[in-house]
């Protein structure tokens, strides 16, 4: 019985953390930024990108972002996305370290797509 309570507690905690994460990313004005011309930067691998992506997004994998960031315009606004939101946070931080000022984490690409195309 004690193990079941521990598992339930962990599950509830994970759910709450996920909901907070969603509020901080998807409800942070990202659709509005897109209307103003923000570019979706998908940092998944090329293979993952080919399985599905947001129309109009560009694909530079996290593994190559340190070299390929020079392909991006530091004056533009970018919203980083990946499969679950972890790589997009890393990419956001890398780009900010490189002097990009208008970078936002969009989390999972599929969640952002549902937000912009309900």
From TrEMBL:
CDD domains: RHOD (cd00158)
Organism phylogeny: Bacteria, Pseudomonadati, Bacteroidota, Flavobacteriia, Flavobacteriales
InterPro entries found in the cross-reference section: GlpE_sulfurtransferase, Rhodanese-like_dom, Rhodanese-like_dom_sf
Residues annotated as domain Rhodanese: 34-118
Record-linked SMART domains: RHOD
PROSITE patterns named among the record's database cross-references: RHODANESE_3
Domain of life: Bacteria
One Pfam family, short name: Rhodanese
Keywords, in A-Z order: Plasmid
Name the UniProt record assigns to this protein: Rhodanese-like domain-containing protein
